[in-house]
Amino acid sequence: MKLRNLNQQSAQIVSGTYRITGRVAQFDEDGIAVIKLRLSASDGDLNCLCAD
Predict the structure, then answer these.
(1) What is the pLDDT of residue 51?
(2) Exposure check for the chain: N or C terminus, fewer CB within 10 A?
(3) Count of domains forming the chain
């Protein structure tokens, strides 16, 4: 996976109370750290891709 080739599907600010129920850290082909998070709330799950 190359982080720079990803298309931004949506950007939103998440508010409320969530629990981190899944976390995966990996590096793309250029050595950029990417963290995938699964946040859970009472109304469902939210999957996030975080990069710096």
Answers:
(1) 65
(2) C
(3) 1
